[in-house]
Amino acid sequence: MPGYGNSPPAETVATAEGRVAFLDHVLQELGMRRPVLVSPSMSGRFALPFLLARGERLAGFVPVAPVGTKDYAAEQYRRVQTPTLILYGDRDTSLGPQALQSLQHLPGHRVAVVPNAGHACYRDKPEDFHRALLAFLRQLE
């Protein structure tokens, strides 16, 4: 992600609007029409504003204990119509429950808690993570 890790800072993603435009551009360049956006941790800074601004472009949304959920009001989440699977590990005592508190305002959401997994539940328990993800994806078909 621009501005994270070893990538150089990027002015274009300094604002939520810039991050929406960036992600929109990436999806267009990849030719993706109505993808399911899986958003773990730091990617929430890109995925959440995109969901709120352009959620109709997504077939589904899978936040995995993303950061930034408290930046938006319950009313903003209530306007989103994108099917959502809120996923986190039961040993994630910080971001997982915090994200759930905000994201539970999304209409039509489902919650899956990965047992014996921490914040990176997809690494701790990949089989359980993928089982929950695949069940959600099948429900979208």
Automatic annotation (TrEMBL):
Give the UniProt entry's GO cellular component terms: cytoplasm
Provide this UniProt record's keywords sorted from A to Z.
Cytoplasm
Domain of life the protein comes from: Eukaryota
> According to its UniProt record, where is this protein located?
Cytoplasm
InterPro entries in UniProt: AB_hydrolase_fold (IPR029058)
Q: What is this protein called?
A: ABHEA protein
